[in-house]
Structures are given as structure tokens and as C-alpha cells.
Design goal:
The structure is a single chain. By secondary structure, this protein is of the alpha/beta class. The protein has two domains: 85 residues, Rossmann fold (3-Layer(aba) Sandwich), CATH 3.40.50; 134 residues, NAD(P)-binding Rossmann-like Domain (Rossmann fold, 3-Layer(aba) Sandwich), CATH 3.40.50.720. The strands form three sheets. It has a six-stranded parallel sheet. Helix 1 runs parallel beside helix 10. The chain starts with a strand and ends with a helix. The chain binds NADP nicotinamide-adenine-dinucleotide phosphate.
């Protein structure tokens, strides 16, 4: 039987509707409108698209948003001053510096300059540390979205064996840390594999839940999966496709066609994890705005 689809579009829409209700209530009861500041350095077309869609999400949810654009030649000093201004601005509850930054700017220094209470990307070491310790914090959006997908599709990871393929700071490590917490919606046994593991197949084969976050198109095939497992495909890879208008196509890290016949549930690409990231960013911004008023 073919796997059921875990519908990221539907679940992201549910979360946005909840965030909208939360924002309306915050405005009504405390007079606070969540505010998000975007900083975009350079003119990377991909980053432009992301910032535009995040700005649109703010509009739809009634958030305030401001975008500061700087040329690629912008100095680190100027960027840090911009961040300091937003840190001090009470109308700004979330600060998002679109990554990657030009090479002459130290990305880590920039992340650490953001007030951790406004770090809606969840990349600041204070939030990373709290995540590891199981203390409530602003959590990275894509991994938090993965946990929402599992919970809302009825695939509770509690007591299951999850195998995470990839150990990046933005996906693999945080999703590992979230899944292993002794908390509802988590509480899984978690294995992480990466390029240091010669053959990942025996690990993936044991997984009740596979989280593929490697950035390698269609690398996890149906033959590598345990029958009935749940597959979350984080990969977003553009591959050539002469039949497509643009000449390229977006595919995941999982070979959807073969995996669909083995798994019990799977996220499509596009239409899965990718749609969750902005929804979770909005949720984090609402959380930061609520915390600013002591909620
Ligand atoms: P990354 O920083 O390049 O990290 C990739 C990880 O996968 C590394 O830990 C690497 O291992 C591991 N890896 C690579 N090839 C492997 C292989 N053949 N076998 C086992 N492990 C392997 O990538 P990322 O930022 O985590 O992103 C991963 C994918 O998710 C990308 O396709 C990206 O576009 C996508 N993504 C999507 C969203 C979204 O949907 N919103 C957000 C973020 C990322 P080593 O550590 O040993 O090098």
C-alpha cells in the first residue's frame, strides 16, 4: 500500500491560523503587535525570495515588519550597529538576519549580537544551550516544524527509533536534541548518521522515523527503509529537468517513488517540510512578542 502523505501545506496553514488568533488576542489584551525585522545583505536572488515570502507572511498575520537592505560591501561594524538598533527597539520582537552573509562578515559574531530573546531563528548559543537542556526557548524553525509535522499527522515519536541523516547546526543537531527530550511530542530513541559513517543503510533500515537532512538528491531509497516507517524529507535540491519551464526541478533527499511503496507516511517535496519553516518563524515571533509582555 502506498504511504499516506504528510501534508505540509495543510499543517502550516493550521499553525498560521493559530498564530493569527494568538496575535489578535495579544493586540486586544496587551496592545502589542508582533514585529519582525529582516536584515538582508547583498542581492542573492534566493535570499530575496525568502525575505519577500516572510514579509508577506507578516502581512497576512497582521504582524509589523521592517526590512533593512544593505549592499554586499556592508561592513560587519555597520551590520552589528543595525542589530543593536533593533535590539533596543521595543516594537521589534524578532530579528532575522538572512544567511548566508558575505565572506568578510563573521556569521557567528552576527548571530551572537542578536538579543537572544529576539532570536526567532533559534541560532543564538543561549537558545541552543537551552534547547539541549530542555529549557523553553526560541527553537530553530525547520526542526520545530518537523516535530509539528509528526505530532499533527498522528506520528508521535515517543518510544520510537528515529534516525536523523545529517548533523548540521540548522537541521540535524537541533532535530536530534528536540526528539530526544523527555517531553510530549518527543521522547524518541535517536541515532544521528553523517558522512563519517561508511554505510548508513543498516542504521536507516532500523528506523521507525527517518529524518533525511543531507542535501543529496534522492539518496534514501525505498530499499533502505524499514516497511511501515515514517519519512520526513527535509532536502531541497534543484536538479536539471529539461521538461520543466525553468529547466530545473525541486527534489528531496529521499527517492519519493520507491520510498512511497515502503513507508507508511511520507512528506512530499515540495509541499512538506519546506512550508513549515515560515509558519514556525511566525510562531516564534508571536512567542517572543508575548514574552516581552511577561506572558
Ligand atoms: P548541510 O549543512 O550541508 O549538512 C548536510 C549534512 O548531511 C552534514 O551533516 C553531512 O555530513 C550530511 N551528509 C551529506 N551527505 C551525506 C551522506 N551521503 N551520508 C550521510 N550524511 C551525509 O545541509 P543542511 O543545511 O542541514 O540542509 C540539508 C538539506 O535540507 C538541504 O537540502 C537543504 O536545502 C534542506 N533544508 C531545507 C529547509 C527547509 O525546508 N525549510 C531548511 C534547511 C535546510 P557531515 O557533517 O559529515 O559533512
Amino acid at each position: 500500500m502506498a504511504a499516506s502523505l504528510i501534508d505540509g501545506k495543510l499543517i502550516a496553514a493550521e499553525i498560521r491560523a493559530e498564530v493569527r488568533r494568538g496575535a489578535d488576542e495579544l493586540r486586544r489584551t496587551r496592545g502589542i503587535t508582533p514585529g519582525l525585522a529582516f536584515i538582508l545583505v547583498g542581492n542573492d536572488p534566493g535570499s530575496e525570495v525568502y525575505v519577500r515570502s516572510k514579509g508577506k507572511a507578516c502581512e497576512e498575520l497582521g504582524f509589523r515588519s521592517v526590512t533593512e537592505r544593505r549592499a554586499a560591501s556592508c561592513s560587519e561594524h555597520e551590520l552589528l550597529a543595525l542589530i543593536a538598533g533593533f535590539n533596543a527597539d521595543p516594537a521589534v520582537h524578532g530579528i532575522l538576519v538572512q544567511l548566508p552573509l558575505p565572506r568578510h562578515i563573521d556569521e557567528q559574531r552576527v548571530i551572537e549580537a542578536i538579543d537572544s530573546r529576539k532570536d526567532v531563528d533559534g541560532f543564538h548559543p543561549v537558545n541552543v544551550g537551552k534547547l539541549v537542556l530542555g529549557i523553553p526557548c526560541l527553537r530553530p524553525c525547520t526542526p520545530a516544524g518537523i516535530l509539528e509535522l509528526l505530532a499533527r499527522s498522528g506520528n508521535d515519536p515517543g518510544g520510537k527509533h528515529a534516525v536523523v541523516v545529517g548533523r548540521s547546526n540548522i537541521v540535524g543537531k537541533p532535530v536530534f536534541n528536540m526528539l530526544m527530550q523527555k517531553q510530549p511530542g518527543a521522547n524518541a530513541a535517536v541515532t544521528v548518521v553523517h558522512t563519517g559513517v561508511k554505510d548508513i543503510t543498516p542504521f536507516v533500515k532500523q528506523a521507525d522515523i527517518v529524518i533525511a537532512a543531507m542535501g543529496r538528491p534522492r539518496s534514501i531509497t525505498g530499499a533502505m527503509l524499514k516497511p511501515g516507517c515514517v519519512v520526513i524529507d527535509v532536502g531541497m535540491n534543484r536538479i536539471p529537468d529539461p521538461s520543466a519551464k525553468t529547466g530545473t526541478r525541486l527534489v528531496g533527499d529521499v527517492d519519493f517513488a520507491s520510498a512511497q511503496g515502503v513507508a507508511s507516511a511520507i512528506t512530499p517535496v515540495p509541499g512538506g517540510v519546506g512550508l513549515m519553516t515560515i509558519a514556525m518563524l511566525m510562531k516564534n515571533t508571536l512567542q517572543a512578542a508575548s514574552s516581552s509582555s511577561g506572558i
